[in-house]
Design a protein that fits this description.
The protein is of the alpha+beta class. It has one domain. The protein has 14 helices and 9 strands. The radius of gyration is 21 Å and the shape is elongated. The structure holds cobalamin and iron/sulfur cluster (SF4) (2 copies). One iron/sulfur cluster binds near residues 204, 219 and 245.
Length: about 350
């Protein structure tokens, strides 16, 4: 059996082999950013993402030992994804921009698989009574906060975690463990300084002064998490983004040198610029098979079409009128109908 130093080294090497480009160990103490998170929720910045405000998850976000009894450390991991290769301006009328992270196989599935392999590795090399629990994105963990405590990087003003010399195009995951692995030094250096690029470039101006965002106005939220009507004052600001938003990361100087290609998550399955007429022509089953195993399934068909209609409206795309009219008559989802009606008014100039 390996001692704790050897085990930590072995875990980091294996994590690297599995595609995690950065690994750090944080103590399982309450996060220094927990109060800021609570305040963020109290102010309603989480919009309709009720899971962030649920009492059980609130408590767990504050104390990892409520998730894994006896938890001592979080092994924090970062896995890169390819930067956007097409800008919104390069996406012609009739097409919608898909966020860079979403064009490959769903990262949850890829990373779950790798986390499982890493857990197996730990169990094979540590005391067989060791307890572990893995999360990628969906767990009640302040992932950015613990990753900074594990020395990976620090949050920028756009609230994304930035790794110095690497940028912010990566996902975070973690393995909770009940062993006292040696901890890494917390990363405390501010990487933003006087830069304000993300704040100025954000289409909806939802980046706040305190390194958090007003999620309810964020295009990523509006196009992915929000199942309802996109408010009229925000519709024009969605532009041609049909799924997610990369603006505050694209303008960040820390992402300037990110390589164009990164195949850790596999080959792209979708174009970054997606044909929206084709989208409207997919029935429910075709929608499922087209976006099988990609993050786009999350919005479901009605949610995607709703945003696509808003994009048509923003593009004043005449050729979409018959499709929008048909959807307005036949579709039942209220947010989709609202978007179709709005888009028709934008295209025909009738208010
Ligand atoms: C809810 C959520 C969203 C919401 C709200 C985002 C937000 N900024 O709060 C919406 C739907 C808008 C969203 C969008 C996106 N998301 Co998201 N999201 C989450 C989720 C599930 C919870 C985030 C949360 O708790 N927000 C509340 C705020 C208050 O907390 P926070 O953002 O974590 O910020 C804390 C830390 O930054 C910490 N902190 C750490 N270091 C420092 C340093 C300083 C100086 C300060 C002041 C604070 C600080 O303090 C803050 C308060 O506690 C996490 C996964 C998870 N379990 O954590 C993914 C996560 C944050 N999302 C992720 C991604 C990739 C995205 C998008 C890029 C996707 C896209 N292209 O559309 C965008 C980015 C938008 C943005 N600017 O944040 C990644 C981020 C990876 C990274 N490099 O940071 C995560 C970690 C998922 C993952 N497992 O990889 N997301
Ligand atoms: S993802 Fe887009 S809308 Fe959201 S904060 Fe960043 S730039 Fe603003
Ligand atoms: S764009 Fe500038 S202010 Fe925004 S996160 Fe990057 S370095 Fe920080």
């Amino acid at each position: 059996m390996l001692n704790l130093d050897e085990l930590t080294m072995a875990i980091k090497t294996e994590a690297n082999r599995l595609g995690f480009n950065h690994t750090g160990i944080a103590p399982a103490l309450p996060s220094p950013h927990y109060d800021a998170f609570l305040q963020w929720v109290e102010e309603g910045n989480h919009a309709e993402m009720g899971y962030l405000a649920r009492e059980d998850t609130l408590a767990k976000r504050g104390d990892p030992s409520l998730i894994l009894e006896g938890c001592q450390r979080l092994i924090c991991l970062a896995m890169p994804y390819a930067r956007p290769n097409i800008s919104t301006q390069d996406c012609p009328p009739g097409k919608g921009k898909i966020s860079a992270y979403a064009v490959t196989r769903d990262y949850h599935e890829v990373i779950w698989d790798r986390l499982y392999q890493l857990e197996e590795f730990i169990h094979a090399h540590a005391d067989d009574k060791v307890k572990t629990k893995s999360y990628i994105d969906t767990g009640p963990i302040l992932e950015r906060s613990y990753a900074s405590k594990a020395g990976l990087g620090i949050a920028g003003k756009n609230s994304c975690l930035i790794i110095k010399g690497f940028g912010s195009y990566f996902f975070l995951a973690e393995i909770l463990i009940d062993l006292p692995l040696p901890i890494d030094q917390v990363f405390t250096r501010d990487l933003c300084g006087t830069c304000q690029r993300c704040i100025e470039a954000c289409p909806t101006r939802c980046i706040r002064e305190d390194y958090t965002i007003d999620a309810g106005s964020c295009i990523s939220y509006l196009t992915i998490e929000n199942k309802g009507i996109i408010p009229d004052h925000l519709k024009p600001l969605v532009g041609n983004r049909v799924f997610g938003c990369d603006v505050c990361q694209t303008v960040c100087p820390h992402n300037a040198w990110t390589p164009e290609q990164n195949l850790v998550l596999g080959e792209p399955r979708l174009p970054e610029c997606f044909d929206l007429i084709e989208l409207f022509n997919l029935d429910a089953d075709q929608f499922k098979s087209k976006f099988h195993e990609t993050p786009l399934l999350r919005t479901k068909r009605a949610g995607m079409l709703r945003t696509a209609a808003v994009v048509f409206g923003n593009q004043k795309f005449q050729l979409a009128l018959p499709i929008l009219q048909k959807a307005l008559e036949k579709e039942e989802d209220p947010a989709l109908k609202d978007a179709c009606g709005w888009a028709i008014r934008q295209i025909t100039g009738t208010q």
